[in-house]
Automatic annotation (TrEMBL):
It comes from the Bacteria. The lineage of its organism: Bacteria, Pseudomonadati, Bacteroidota, Chitinophagia, Chitinophagales. The gene is cmk. GO terms for biological process: nucleobase-containing small molecule interconversion; pyrimidine nucleotide metabolic process. It is found in: Cytoplasm. It catalyses: dCMP + ATP = dCDP + ADP; CMP + ATP = CDP + ADP. CDD domains: CMPK. Belongs to the cytidylate kinase family. Type 1 subfamily. GO terms for cellular component: cytosol. InterPro entries: Cytidylate_kin, Cytidylate_kinase_dom, P-loop_NTPase. Residues 6-215 form the Cytidylate kinase domain. Its EC number is 2.7.4.25. This is Cytidylate kinase. Gene3D superfamilies: P-loop containing nucleotide triphosphate hydrolases. Pfam families: Cytidylate_kin (PF02224).
Amino acid sequence: MQRIIITIDGYSSCGKSTLARQLARHLRYIFIDSGAMYRAITLYFLRSHINISSNKQVKKALEDINLEFYYNEITGENDIYLNGENVAIPIREMLVSEAVSEVAAIKAVRAFAVAQQQKMGEQKGIVMDGRDIGTAVFPNAELKIFMTADPAIRVERRFKELYAKNPNITLEEVRHNLEMRDYIDSNREVSPLRKAPDAIVLDNTYLTIDQQLKLALGWVKEKQ
Ligand code: C5P
C-alpha cells in the first residue's frame, strides 16, 4: 500500500495529537507533534532570557538549539529532546503555553522548524499535526484534515487534562490561554492558521475518540 503524508491542523485543544498518534499507530507511520517543537524552542528562549523582539538574539539562540524526537518505550510517546534533554514534561507547563504563540509567530523560528519538519516527511509514512502543516509544511500532502470543536468543549477537555497534573489551575486561565493562542495563531503574518482549500473538516464536538479514528481511517483508505 502506498505510504502517504497526513496533515492535521486546527485550533488549540481540538484533539489533533490524539488523532494523529492513533492514526500513526494503526498505519505504523511516524507521528510528529509539530507544536512540541515550537514549545521546546519557547522553553529554550525562556530559560535563556532571549528578548524575542531582537532578531539578532533570536537567530543566535536558534543556532544553539538542537531538537530530536525519540520513542519512549515506557509511555509509548514520541518524546522531544532539547539539546539532549527530554523536555516532554516542561514544555506542557503554563509558562510555555503563555509564551509559545508569540515565539511561533517569528519568521526565523518558523523557517527553522519548517525546514526540519519537511525533512522528516521526505520518506512519507508520516502523520504531523499543527497549525500550518497542510498549508505551508506539506502543501502536497495526500490527506489533509482540519479539526475543529465547540470552544466550550475544548476548554473543558483541556482543563480536565491540565487539572489532573496541577489542581491549582482554573477554568478561566485555560479559557484565556486557548483564546489568546487561537487569536495569535490565526492573525500572525507568517503562515497563519487556515484550513487548506483541499482539507477535510472534522468537527469532533459530538464524536468519541473511536468514532473520529474510524472516520479518518476511511479517508486514509481512499487516498492510499
Ligand atoms: O499544538 P500545540 O497546542 O501544542 O502548539 C503550541 C503552539 O505552537 C500553538 O498555539 C501555535 O502557536 C504553535 N504552533 C504553530 N505551528 C504549528 C504547531 C504549533 O505555530 N505547526
